[in-house]
Amino acid sequence: MKARVVVTLKSGVLDPQGKAIEGALTSLGVAGVSGVRQGKVFDMELEGADEDAARATLTAACEKLLANTVIENFSIEL
Amino acid sequence: MKSAIVVFPGSNREGDMARALTQASGQAPAMLWHDDHELPAGTDLVVLPGGFSYGDYLRCGAIAGRARIMDAVRAHAARGGLVLGVCNGFQILCESGLLPGVLMRNANLRFVCKMQHLRIEGADTVFTRRYRLGQVIEVAIAHGEGNYEADDETIARLEGEGRVAFRYCDAAGRLGGDANPNGSRNDIAGVYSAARNVLGLMPHPENLIDPLVGGIDGRALFSSLAQAAA
After folding, report:
1. A9 Cβ partners below 8 Å, 6+ apart?
2. B206 tagged catalytic
3. How do residues B171-203 score in pLDDT, each as one tens digit?
4. ipTM summary value
5. Residue B210: exposed, middle, or buried by beta-carbon count in 10 A (0-12, 13-18, 19+)?
6. B105/A16 Cβ within 8 A
7. Which listed residue, A75, B22, B166, B193, has the most CB atoms within 10 A of its CB?
8. What confidence tens digit (pLDDT) does each residue in A20-53 have?
9. Would you call B138 a catalytic residue per the annotation?
10. Number of independent structural domains in chain B
11. Which residues constitute the domain of residue B9?
12. For B115, phi and psi rounded to 5 degrees?
């Protein structure tokens, strides 16, 4: 089974990289962007076909390693 | 003092740290590898040195914080044993759950490598007893992710419990503005665990132990530890 985990900064956490990207887009003439928040995407291959088991595995992966829950949220797409 | 330095793939300050510990205590530290699973018997102090463990992949300190040796470090800390993390070592302590908060990208997005003044915020711990409260020292900083952040509740708890060890300041001890090199909340450069036996800091006191390289303001940290463990 293929899965995608998206890790993003919690709202309210300062994201200087997102700010710098937003500034670069403006200076490149890409108009209409009023905010950028940078995150991470993990494309994962899972054994088995059980969705509940997959969610449990990925939640454990996020809480143990992929996300720092002090500052980051995660979401799981199957 | 029996000390041990943990070396991870990508650590690069272990030699400086070993020199500082040997100078202060007269005893060379044991060098451990990340995949070891126990500390030498009778270890007083475990040090996580600076560097770029695991290439800073995922998040700085994230993978090292879950290395096998960290179970032994956590058990040592739970017994009241001393733990010091410098720079990447501080990041590892935060990622491993031994210290609260997180070190984020510097607010100005630049790697900073320069001399920096610090104010001693608590001189009553085993790490800082040879400094004076409020003393301003000058040490080196070299990091891209040293911007200390935690939620409001955690910051209030650290401040309320007197667990901020060092703050960035200028030569006169003034806080704020350009004296803060990375955007850290409340100018925090180092924090203690609740029991004050674990200290993490971004600056490099181990690089300021010899007049030949520009100063000895870092020495008192290591002599404090040697005195505590004597």
Report:
1. A15, A18, A37, A38, A39, A71, A72, A73
2. yes
3. 999 999 999 999 999 999 999 999 999 999 999
4. 0.85
5. middle
6. yes
7. B166
8. 999 999 999 999 999 999 999 999 999 988 999 9
9. no
10. 1
11. 3-229
12. -80, 145
For residue B109, CA distances in Å to A37, A40, B112, B206 come to 15, 18, 9, 25
Q: Which of A38, A64, A68 is the best mutation test for B, with the most CBs of B within 10 A?
A: A68
Residue B166: both structure tokens together? 């060092």
Here the tokens at position B177 are 């503005």
Q: Are B158 and B165 in contact (CB under 8 A)?
A: no
A17 closest CB neighbour out of B58, B109, B183: B109
Q: B67 to chain A: nearest residue by CA?
A: A65
- Residue length of chain A: 78
Domains of chain A: 2-77 (3.30.1280.10)
Alpha-carbon distances, residue A40 vs A5, A14, A69, A73, A77 (angstroms): 8, 16, 14, 11, 14
pTM greater than the 0.90 cutoff:
yes
Specify the CATH number for the domain of residue B160. 3.40.50.880
Instruction: Give the pLDDT confidence of B90-123 residue by residue, as tens digits.
Output: 999 999 999 999 999 999 999 999 999 999 998 7
Q: How far is CA B187 from CA A75, B23, B26, B138, B218, in A?
A: 33, 30, 34, 15, 19
